[in-house]
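Dear Dr. H.,

I hope your travels went smoothly. While you were away I took the liberty of generating a structure for the chain from your last submission, since the lab meeting agenda had it listed for discussion. I wanted you to have the full record in hand beforehand rather than looking at slides cold. The sequence, exactly as received, is reproduced here:
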Amino acid sequence: MRLSPRARRRLAAGTMVGAMAVAVPGVAVAATGSSSPSGSTGTGSTTGAGDTTRHPGPVAGCTTSTFSTAQSALESALTGRTTLLGTLQTRVSGAKDLPSATAAALGAILHAEQDTINGSGLAGLLTTAQGATTCAQLVATARTMVTAFRVYVLVAPQVRLTVGASRATALLAKATAVEPKIQAHITKAAGTGKNVSGAQQAFSDLQAQIATATTDVAAVPVAQILAQVPSDYPADQSMLSTARTALANAVQAGRAARTDIQTIRQDLR
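The corresponding predicted structure, in token form, is as follows:
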């Protein structure tokens, strides 16, 4: 049985859920651990969380002879964070299906971070780093950069998880809406005498995958994620990790659903 162009379009709509594999990029990788650069977590690559007695991150081991190198490294670390915040802002601005209240909350988080780091607040860290003359000043600035902002371990996940969950929720709603249409095409094909056992089995799995993905996405606590602040580190990492895993599982279900759609298409040709 050959499907009409209209029928093919309707069936193609079912791939909405499969699109999560590309609509929520990086989630599966993020679920297995942080990809943050050295010195972006805790109080630095050479210290434990809460340890404020040692040199943090990019200025670790700063001495008089290595001061210029440490200062440049700190400036680079601050610039990297500023660049990432700009990238995250672009992602929020271009996000589809992001509720206005959620977009506003993310915008406020990014605005506060960007303003303070860039120096429009009481003291800009980059300006402070550039004006530093001692290792002690660099250490204090680096420590503030890490502990007061948490750009890599908190702000980036806040944006990625929230945008990803919102997009996945919208895709799943669309996929659920076309389920009856896909079943109708299978039933119609069966009425013409075509063997649709493969398509029917794939459709049953498609429904299961959509249901699984919907449950997984619902497990991403967006409100709780948005409420986190830098001082919540490292207690918030378990919650963020669980959210990453849930969204990654939803993406996996989306990939399986896309395979089911391909099977249905093949079986109804």
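Two observations you may find useful: The two ends are 5 Å apart (CA to CA). Residues 182 and 222 are 31 Å apart (CA to CA).

With kind regards,
E. W.
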